[in-house]
Write a structure and sequence with these properties.
Distance between the termini: 73 Å
Number of helices: 6
Low-confidence stretches: 128-138, 142-146
Structural class: mainly alpha
Strand content: under 5%
Number of domains: 1
Order of helices and strands: EEHHHHHH
Radius of gyration: 19 Å
Number of strands: 2
């Protein structure tokens, strides 16, 4: 029918990570092999969420970081399972990795985890390794040994 809009895809379906959409990874982490919902399972030791539903978004965000650093994974499901394990077991690597490499995470996904990290998650500041002198510091003479 003229003038009728086509249905818009879910934003998380438009991003691909290791061969699946972000929404498909979420479904992978919140459903068992038979397709039963498991997102309501408690994660009592995790600061990243009280259940698998909340924790899954952090795991997907961490996997975005791993993919950005390593260029993807040869075993994506195993890598995602590893990321989810880090999240539910409250690893400090999750917060550090997501915060330090936040620019590798799509904004649509950041919205799912911003409650934990706050507005700083949206600052597009790329970190420099500790041994690199930032351009602004070079202009001020920082790092000059002569």
């Amino acid at each position: 029918m003229p003038g009728e809009q086509l249905p818009q895809p879910e934003t998380l379906d438009t991003y691909e990570l290791n061969g699946r959409s972000l929404q498909a990874w979420h479904d992978y982490l919140t459903h068992d092999a038979e397709g039963n919902y498991t997102g309501n399972l408690d994660t009592p030791d995790s600061n990243y969420g009280r259940d698998a539903e909340a924790c899954s978004w952090h795991a997907i965000s961490l996997e975005c970081v791993f993919a950005w650093i390593n260029g993807g994974s040869d075993a994506p499901a195993a890598s995602m399972d590893y990321s989810m394990g880090l999240v539910v077991n409250n690893s400090d690597y999750v917060e550090t990795g997501i915060y330090d490499y936040r620019y590798a995470i799509p904004d649509a996904l950041k919205e799912k985890i911003a409650w934990y990290y706050g507005r700083e998650l949206y600052r597009d500041v790329r970190p420099y390794p500790p041994n690199v002198v930032r351009p602004s510091e070079r202009a001020a003479g920082v790092g000059d040994d002569h």
